[in-house]
Amino acid sequence: MTMSKESPLSLLSQDDLSRLLELIHKSLFCSTEEHLASLLGDLKWLFPYDFAVCALHRAGTVIDPHHFINVNFPSDWCSLYMAQGFDKVDPIVLESGRSGQGIQYWTDTYKKYRAKTTRTFISTAQDFGLKEGYSYGVRAPNENKRSLFNFAGGSVDHHPRTECILEYAIPHLDQAFNRIVGQSKGPTPRNPSAPKLSSREKEVLNWAKDGKSIWETSIILSISQNTVQFHLKNIMAKLAVVNKTQAVAVALHNGLIHSE
Predict the structure, then answer these.
(1) 259 located within any domain
(2) Does residue 3 sit within a domain?
(3) Which of 195, 208, 197 is nearest to 243 (CA)?
């Protein structure tokens, strides 16, 4: 991962970057719930949290109990959550269904929802130690599904460094999650229903995959930085993602580019 001066990766130390690269590499070979739970646990080396869980839900907010990997959320809370249908009032799930993907800091999202049922839900969650947290949603291309990764605890600080880590790590962990729950069958030939990328877009994305900055890519391809940014914008629009890391993960998943 090569950093330009303004890169959000500048928030991370060299040790952070090494751990992050190792995590991403391991995720490429992750195919079991136990392995994914272990990788999510490894994120504690990068930012502190007490509890983690990932789940699949549809835009209609319903959490699929069969596509639910609990790393260490309180088991009593998970049972209560499913029994009470809390996914129908959970602000994080509601917001994920509305926006599709990206980072949510719980306190910020909670401010948007004032219904009595929502306030009761929040109070109950806090009784289980789930007071602060981050969630990261990923929308499946061309599908009405979202993956939702949640990290919580008594004190999870709102910090751009944590958000940078999630932005780079979660898209790769999400690809592992998809393989595990059966939405994909691991590395496959190009998905015929996936959006088509031009040869230049594939070149730009391949260099992004190798960690090249916009400036470095422009030098390698002998094009302007504005042209690189133009191609990246088109790529992200086609793949329905919000950043380069997600674009690389989705493109690899659909066979649009290759890992080697």
Answers:
(1) no
(2) no
(3) 208
The kind and range of the H/E element at 105 are strand 102-105
Amino acid at 123: S
Global pTM?
Answer: 0.69
The Cα 97–Cα 7 span in angstroms is: 29
Residue found under tokens 């031009």: 198
Contact between residue 198 and residue 257 where contact means Cβ atoms under 8 Å apart: no
Residue 206 shares a structural domain with residue 175: no
Cα→Cα distances 204→28, 167, 245, Å: 21, 19, 13
The sign of the CA dihedral 118, 148, 206, 163 is positive
Condensed to tens digits (0 to 9), the pLDDT of residues 37-71 reads: 999 999 999 999 999 999 887 765 556 655 778 88
Structural domain containing residue 238: 199-253
Instruction: Indicate the helix (H) or strand (E) that contains 51.
Output: strand 51-58
CA trace torsion 134, 13, 203, 236 (10° rounding):
20
